[in-house]
Amino acid sequence: MIEIKDVYKKYENSSYPALDHINLTINDGELITVLGTSGCGKTTLIKAINKLHDIDSGEIIIDHKNINDVDGVALRRTIGYVIQQVGLFPHMTIAENIATIPELLKWEKDRINKRVDELLEMIDLPKEYKNRYPRELSGGQQQRVGLVRALAADPHIVLLDEPFGAIDAITREHLQDELIRIHKNGNKIFIFVTHDLNEAFKLGDKVIIMDKGRVEQFDTPDHIKAHPATPFVKKLLGVAYD
Amino acid sequence: MIKYWIEHYDKFMVGLVEHLQLTVITVFISIIISLLITLLIRKYKRVQIIVNGIFSGLYSIPSLALFAMLIPFTGLGLETAVIVLVIYNQYILVRTNIAGLDQVDSHIIEAAKGMGMTDFQILYKVQFPLALPIIFGGIRLATISTISIGTIAAGIGAGGLGRLLFEGLRQMNQAKVVGGTILVIILSISIGRIFEIIENNLKKNFGLKS
After folding, report:
1. What is the set of domains in chain B, with CATH numbers?
2. pTM score, two decimals?
3. ABC transmembrane type-1 domain: which residues (chain B) (predicted)?
4. Which of A28, A82, B72, B193 has the greatest number of CB atoms lying within 10 Å of its CB?
C-alpha cells in the first residue's frame, strides 16, 4: 500500500508547485494510471515515490514505512522503474540487462538464470535473444525487455513513466494488453504515467487526473466519465469523447 | 645512408627499445593518474576548473623548459622525463575521460539510478564501459604525443630514439637523424593504428557507430 499524505514540492523558478498538497492512497493489486499534460506533476509524483526526487513537505508511506526513513538506493531496488526511452544498457546482452537488479541483490547465478528465462517467456521472446544486444531488437521488443528488467527482482511496486510513448500505435496496443495480462498475474501495484486519455482509461483500475500539480480527480474510469469532478476533467473528457 | 642503417642496426634497435620503454611506462602511469583525477572531479565538481587551468598552463610550457625546471629536483634521466610526459598527458586524458563519461546517454544513467545502483556502481558498471571508446581515443592521442615529445627526453639523458636525433645533429650524421626520424614515425603510426583498431572494436561492441 502506498499512502501519499499532503505531499508538496515546488521548484524555485516555476509559477505553480510541482506537487500541490497531494493526498492519495493506492492499494495492493491496483493498476493506477496517472493522466495529465506536460508539467502537471505526474512524473514528479512517481519520482517522489522512489526518491529520485525529494519533496518539500508531506509524507510518502509505503507498506507502513515512511520512505524518509529508508535509504534511497535500497528502496529503488524494491521498486520497478520503467522509462519511455527504456534505457537498456547497450554494452550488455539482453540477459545481462534483465539480470541487473538480481545481481545488485546478489542472487545466486542459477536463480538469476532461471528468472531470466522465466521473464523472456513472459514477454514471448525466444531464448536466442538472451545473448543479443539491445541494438539488435526492435523498439517494441526493447520496451518489453525494459518492462521485464524492472520486474526481475519481483518488486511489489512498479513505476512506469510513459513507457509506450515512443511506440507505434499498433505495437502500443499489444504492449498495453500484455501489461494488463502481466499485472493480472500478481498482486503488484503498477503506477502508469501517460498523457494519453484512452490509454489511461483502458489500463487503469483507477485514474489519477492531474493538472498544475493538483489532483483533479482520482476514481475509476467509469465514475470519472459519469461524474467528472472539475471543469478541467469535463474539458478533458469533452476533448476525447465528443 | 641505408648502408649505415644496416651496419649500425643495433644502435637503432637500442634506441627503439628505450623509446618504447619510456612510452609504455609513461602512458601506463598517465592513465592511472588521469583516472584518479577524473574520479576526483566527478566527486567535487568545483575542482574541474582548477584542474583544467593547471594542466593547460603546464601544457603550454615548452618541454625543454619543463625538463630544465625539474632537473634540480629529480635529476637527469628517465625519471624526470616520465614526470614531465605524464604531466603533459593529463591535459589530454582528463579532458577526454570527462568528455567520454558525459556523452553517455542520460536516459541510461536515469534507468541505472532508478534501478537502485549507487553512484559508484553507475560509474563503473554503466558509464565507464560506455565511455571507453572515447577514453581510448584520448589514450591514443596521449600515446602519440608521448612518442613525439619523448624524443626531446634524450636531451636530458633519458635515451630513446631522440638520442639518435641529437647525436646525428651533433655529429652531422644524416643517417642517424633520418633513420631515427623514420623510426619515430613508424612507431607513431603503428601504435596509432593499433589503438584505432581497438577503439573501433569497442565502438562496435557497445552499439555506437564507428
Report:
1. 2-205 (1.10.3720.10)
2. 0.84
3. 16-195
4. A82
